[in-house]
Amino acid sequence: QVQLVESGGGLVQAGDSLRLSCAANGLTFTDYIMGWFRQAPGKRREFVAAISRDGTGKGTAYSTDPEEDRFTISRDNTKNTVYLELNSLTPVDTAVYLCAAAFSNQPHTTAVFPEQYAYWGQGTQVSVSS
């Protein structure tokens, strides 16, 4: 049975940082693209970031310039864990952050659509106060 378990959320102030973790069990971790999505109350689930099987491919939703990215995704294939670092948080970032896994035959590609992901965690709440 596949399990994705997120942790690291909490209540923070605007400008703070958080590091979310997602531990995966029950699957061959290196066969899967790992992604982070978020969902705020009354809003659609939206893509945040994804990382390829081997960690060389990355994509985030909110900036085309890696130097300006507030969010950074990484993975440790020795620990079956994917991370999401959130910096310069604002109240707009308040949401449940969910980890997801998408099987892939390609080691370097990512995936941005929720329907591409077969497995999902329960999510961890991130709340940012102004």
Assembly state (oligomeric): single chain
Q: Radius of gyration over alpha carbons?
A: 14 Å
Say how many strands there are: 11
Average per-residue pLDDT, rounded, comes to 93
H/I helix tally: 0
Helix proportion range: under 10%
Helix and strand composition category = mainly beta
> What is the N-to-C order of secondary-structure elements (H for helix, E for strand)?
EEEEEEEEEEE
Q: Kindly, what is the distance between the CA atoms of the first and last residues, rounded to a whole number of angstroms? A: 40 Å
Strand percentage? over 45%
Largest sheet: 7 strands, mixed
Low-confidence stretches: none
Shape: globular
Descriptive account of the structure:
The chain has 130 residues and is an all-beta fold. It is built from no helices and eleven strands. It has strands at 3-7, 10-13, 18-25, 32-39, 46-51, 58-60, 71-76, 81-86, 95-103, 119-120, 124-129. Strands 2, 4, 5, 6, 9, 10 and 11 form a seven-stranded mixed sheet that branches. A four-stranded antiparallel sheet has the order 1-3-8-7, with no helix packed on it. The N and C termini lie far apart (40 Å).
